[in-house]
Amino acid sequence: MSNVSEICDWMGAVAPLALTESWDNTGLLLGCPRHEANRVQTCLTLTPETTSEAIERDAQLVIVHHPLPFKALKRMTTQTTAGSMLWQLANAGCSIYAPHTAWDSAEFGINALLAEKLNLQGVEPIINIANPEHPGLGAGRIGDLPDSMSAQGLASLLSGLPGYRPRAVFPQKDVKRVAIACGSGGSLLSDGLASGCDLFLTGEATYHTCLEAEAAECAMLMVGHYASERFAMEQLAHELAAQFPAIECWASERESDPVQAIALP
What is the pTM of this model? Predict the structure, then answer.
C-alpha cells in the first residue's frame, strides 16, 4: 500500500520542485500526505469530466499537469467551476498534485520527451536554471536533428501525439537545429533564436509570435497545447504503475482537447 507522501516524493525526484518557475504553483495542492493513494489518475487538466472520472473510479490522488488551484483563492464554493471541482475532490478524499513547469524542465520531463521523439542530438535547455542542485536543467530544450529535413517532414515525426493538429510558419523550410517549448511556449522564441534554432516547436503561440518567427526567417511548428503535453501524462501513468506495482494508475480516459476542428458544409 502506498500513501500520498510516497508518490509525491517520487514525483519530486522525477520533477524537482526547485525547477518550478516563480509564477507557478506546484506540488501537493490539496489533500493529506498521510492518506492512502492506491488508486491514481493522471491528466493534463482538471475539468468537470476528469474530476467526475476520478471520483467515480475512486481515485485517491490525481496528478494533473496544470495546477488547480493556480492562483490564490479568496473563497472556495461550488458557485465557480474551480471551486466546485475542489469541493468535490476534497469530499471524495482525493488529493491533487501538480508538477507543471517542474515537469516541463525536468531531465526526463515533457520537453525532453519531445526532443527524444525527434531523436535530437546534443540536447540542452534553452534557458539554464541557475540551481546548483540541478546543473544543466532548465526551460525548454534545443538540439540538432540527425539530418536536415523540411518543417513539414519534421511534423510527420510527431503524428502520433494525441489531438495532433499541426500548423506552421515556413512549413517547407529545411531545418536542422530545433528548439522546443511545450504548451504556450512562445515566450521562449527569442531565446531559441539566440541559440541558433532553425525551427521553434511549441503547442500554441500568438499571432505576433508567429510574425516574430517569420521576420527572423525561423520555421515554427505549433502542434496544439493539448498535443504537446497530454502524451506525457499518459507516459507518466505507465511509469507510476511500474514504480508502484501495488497501485492502480491510469491516464484519464475522458480527457479530450477542448479545441476541435470544424467541418464546414
Answer: 0.93
